[in-house]
Write a structure and sequence with these properties.
Blueprint lengths: L12 E2 L5 E10 L3 H12 L5 E4 L8 H4 L31 H14 L6 E2 L4 E7 L4 E6 L2 E10 L21 E4 L13 E5 L5 H8 L5 E5 L6 E2 L8 H9 L1 H23 L3 H17 L3 H7 L11 E2 L3 H5 L4 E4 L3 E5 L2 E4 L4 E3 L2 E4 L14 E2 L6 H4 L18 E3 L12 H22 L1 E6 L1 H13 L29 H7 L8 E5 L5 H5 L1
Parallel strand pairs: 2-3, 2-7, 3-4, 5-18, 7-19, 8-17, 9-10, 9-17, 10-13, 11-12
Antiparallel strand pairs: 1-2, 5-6, 6-7, 14-15, 15-16, 20-21
Helix pairs in contact: 1-11, 5-6, 6-7, 11-13
The chain binds NADP nicotinamide-adenine-dinucleotide phosphate (NAP).
Length: about 525
């Protein structure tokens, strides 16, 4: 089991498997933007008693895992970074994965987070101990006892494999875009790509020129807008370095413009029709072949699924070695993908650009609350979290980027920072009030959730497309249906009245002292 240099070691409690558990005040699971951001804010608040558990071999979360060719953020660089850690040196207006990953690793170095980070520690279970008023946290390489558990695993951390009969027995190579196998040489191969979402439209143009034959299986044609990405100039980088206010102003301008997009999603379709016209013109301009264009025309309202940006997706599909397949896949047999119409495509490699378990993450089956039920069991009617962070029956737990914090129009980093404010303020309230435990009151959570859900009807996300914003019941448990500055406003303080609290004095002495 690992030791925890920076964390004061308390007397150990016997953990599962017989080894003693390290005691910490806070256990953070995940070291992506949310986990690292929280660690930085904790240190800035003078809190050192925490550990960050990361299953991967390095920090970075989704930006560590997604190394597929062409991986790039679709939110402008100056906004897709922490306001408290600006980077004047972004080399592109929309950063690519290696640069974002470098940024995150740089944060871990600069803020001296490594003594807190445990790499290769995958969460295998966590349960609330009501006697001790603590979390028992189990990982693949050791156990922890924590007063507070923070789930910072994010919605894009568990690749989703499609339920295609025979896929698991495919006799060639198969991998998911978030687990790209860089040792596998695609040169000259017959390759199938399943999915035409945000990831696929980025990696298909990068591999199309290298492979022998490429079959792209599209179930739903996405809306594609032209990309405005470009390299930043040396002058810009120098300016932002010398004049941080200039970078802040650019950030604020990009933020404000993006907030405006929300109107097209929630209020009035006319705000979105302009963007639809631009996307249609982009398709017309780039795809002269009418038959191919018809296949690529979206049949749902722009914004219902994530809007994609690309200048090279359509040209890649027009290459002579690339085929866009829109017929349904029936099954996989040997090395062959068999379509519903009986036609076949024999391939060497299948690449799955099929997204993530967003509304049904595996961690929900690993975390057990006060009544012994997992989050998944307790949320069968749809997951709910107060301020997107605290869940009923799960004391002292924060979920970062939890339910209804996702965005289609602005930067998730802004939402993460809002939640970090909330967590830091909760810790202040706990310290000042000598509070050992908080738990969201079910009625406060129900009222909060009802308000969010009341805003959903009439929004573009509920306009009839199937998307990962919706759960198995058709509820939108993913998107924040309002301006992001409102979320920031609501999370600036830990609203203690919404919580049932237990003071340290009321926790049995043995448990407090242990
Ligand atoms: P995604 O957007 O969920 O796309 C998955 C694709 O796979 C869709 O085209 C989907 O079709 C298709 N698919 C799923 N199951 C299938 C099946 N059984 N048969 C055929 N097709 C199937 O996933 P993603 O592209 O990995 O992106 C996920 C999210 O990651 C994005 O929405 C975005 O938030 C984030 N991301 C962001 C960036 C960025 O630029 N910042 C880049 C990559 C990813 P349907 O549409 O018919 O369901």
């Amino acid at each position: 089991m690992s030791s925890l240099a920076a964390v004061p070691a308390g007397p150990a409690k016997q953990a599962r498997g017989g080894a003693p558990a390290d005691r910490v005040r806070i256990a953070i699971v995940g070291s992506g933007f949310a986990g690292l951001g929280l660690a930085i804010r904790l240190k800035q608040a003078g809190i050192e008693d925490f550990v960050m558990l990361e299953r991967a071999a390095d920090v970075g979360g989704t930006w560590q895992a997604n190394t597929y060719p062409g991986c790039q953020c679709d939110v402008p660089s100056h906004l897709y970074s922490f306001s408290f850690a600006p980077n004047p040196g972004w080399t592109r207006t929309y950063s690519r994965q290696p640069e974002i990953w470098d940024y995150l690793r740089g944060l871990a170095d600069r803020h001296d987070l490594h003594p807190h980070i445990r790499l290769g520690h995958e969460l295998t279970g966590a349960s609330w101990d009501d006697d001790e008023q603590r979390w028992h946290v189990h990982t693949s390489r050791g156990d922890w006892s924590a007063q507070i558990l923070v789930d910072a695993t994010g919605p894009l951390s568990h690749p989703k494999l499609p339920a295609i009969r025979g896929l698991r027995r495919f006799e060639g190579k198969v991998f998911h875009s978030a687990e790209w196998d860089h040792d596998h040489d695609l040169t000259g191969e017959r390759v199938a790509v399943i999915g035409t979402g945000a990831s696929a439209i980025q990696f298909v143009p990068r591999i199309a020129g290298r492979v022998g034959k490429l079959h792209v299986f599209q179930r739903t044609a996405p809306w594609i807008l032209p990309h405005t990405d470009r390299p930043t100039t040396r002058l810009e980088r120098r300016l932002y370095k010398a004049l941080p206010l200039a970078q802040k102003a650019v950030r604020a301008g990009v933020y404000a413009a993006r907030e405006f997009f929300l109107l097209g999603y929630i209020k009035d379709r006319r705000f979105a029709t302009g963007a639809e016209r631009v996307a249609k013109a982009h398709l017309r301009r780039q795809v002269p072949d009418a038959a191919l264009r018809a296949k690529l025309r979206p049949h749902f309202r722009l914004g219902c699924k994530r809007i994609l940006l690309s200048n090279d997706w359509y040209p890649a599909l027009m290459r002579p070695n690339v085929e866009l397949v829109t017929d349904e896949i029936s099954h996989v047999h040997g090395r062959t993908i068999v379509l519903a119409d009986g036609s076949e495509r024999e391939v060497d490699t299948i690449i799955l650009g099929t997204g993530f378990h967003v509304t049904d993450p595996p961690t929900a089956r690993l975390v057990r609350g006060r009544d012994g039920r997992t989050i998944a069991q307790a949320s069968q009617a749809g997951i709910q979290a107060y301020r997107g962070a605290t869940l009923a029956g799960l004391p002292n737990l924060f979920k970062l980027i939890g339910p209804n914090t996702g965005l289609g129009h602005n930067s998730m980093i802004y939402m993460i920072e809002a939640q970090l404010n909330y967590v830091i303020d909760a810790l202040r309230v706990m310290d000042e009030g000598d509070i050992a435990t908080f738990e969201i009151r079910p009625e406060a959570l129900a009222a909060y959730n009802a308000k969010i859900q009341s805003k959903m009807p009439g929004t573009v996300w509920m306009s009839g497309c199937s998307s990962w914003y919706l759960d198995a019941n058709g509820n939108n448990t993913t998107i924040w249906p309002d301006f992001t500055f409102r979320f920031r406003h609501h999370t600036r303080r830990f609203d203690v009245g919404a919580y049932a609290l237990r003071r340290s004095a009321d926790v049995p002495r043995t448990a407090v002292a242990a």
